[in-house]
Structures are given as C-alpha cells and as structure tokens.
Design brief:
By secondary structure, the protein is mainly α. The chain has a domain at 27-60. It is 36% helix and 0% strand. The longest helix is centred in the C-terminal third of the chain and has 14 residues, at 45-58.
C-alpha cells in the first residue's frame, strides 16, 4: 500500500474479514506534531489522535 493512500473503515473491515487479520498492524502517530500555527499549546493534535487511537483499539467509546 502506498504511504499516501487511504481507505474507509468499511474497506478495512472487509479486508480484515472481521477475524482480527489486522491485529498485528502498527499505527505510528506523532505525539508532538503541532498545528499549522506552530503553537506550543497542549494538547497537541498528535497527542489527541494518539489518545483516540488507543481508545479505539481498546474498544472504548
């Protein structure tokens, strides 16, 4: 897969066959990325995405 490509969650579910085929997938998220202004404000977008990714992987709402 191209590093710039993307696909919908539905496509991911179809590809995985709902059998945990993607359980070994690692998603790398930059936790220190800043917004377009370059601000040092916290939480940073990368931190928020990291937290949401962990919650989604754990099945939390």
């Amino acid at each position: 897969m191209d590093h710039d490509s993307s696909f919908s969650a539905g496509t991911a579910d179809i590809s995985s066959g709902h059998d945990d085929a993607l359980a070994g997938v690692t998603i790398i998220v930059c936790g220190s990325c800043r917004n377009e202004t370059g601000s040092d404000a916290h939480p940073r977008a990368g931190e928020l995405l990291t937290d949401d990714t962990r919650r989604a992987a754990a099945g939390d709402d």
